[in-house]
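Chain A, query sequence.
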Amino acid sequence: MTCNSRSFFSGKFLRFILAGVAGSSLLVVANDTPPDRIPSYVEWTQHTIAAASSGDAFRGMLLAKRCEHCHGSEGFSPVASTPNLAGLDKLAIWKQLEDFRARKRISPVMGPIAESLTVHDVADVVAYYGALPVFSDPQDNRSFPQMRSNPDHASVASRLISFGDGSRGIPPCQACHGPVAYRPGAASLMNQNSEYVLNQLEAFANGSRANDINMPMRTISALLADNERHALAEFYGSGMGLDPNSSK
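Chain A, predicted structure.
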């Protein structure tokens, strides 16, 4: 009787321990599930659009003096890896500065600069750059447009910009980045530097840049082949996006 009781309680205790281990394992699995990544805190609401559109361009010009070293005195950078800001849509610049401020887009250079700006400052800087002309000046030192390293890339880029690739679920670039349509917060690429475009496509493709709401750019860039990313960068960087017939 004593032996049977000991055996009963031992077995019961063992089952209790095993159940506890199993339960704790489930808890570990649940707790190890990573939280959903929020790509950006920006929401396109009436309030957001009003805030991004309410800046003072003159005050923004004064604030932008510290930006000229990289982005150029007239919003066109002398370095092809740095983006041109002249004439960009206000919502596009505003979103990127807000993402830099919130560290949703990481840059050791832009992060500290954006964090030093107030919400009012951001709106002013956006107003200034959005109002700058995009035509060339004999005295500027812009790197745009750049030479195309591979002329054969033009047809590849033209097809993707005009039609995309339905078989892979890739929409036409011009449906979000102009000139056919502009997605809120999506920058026009017609005056953008080639190396910058390529760097961003590659960053989206490998996930090192992840501030695109609903992941359109991460998805599309990952579907593009390496030569297609280069083709698109060269097309925009050479100024071909400014020719209305170039993407037909």
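DSSP finds twelve helices and no strands in the chain. The longest helix spans residues 2-32.
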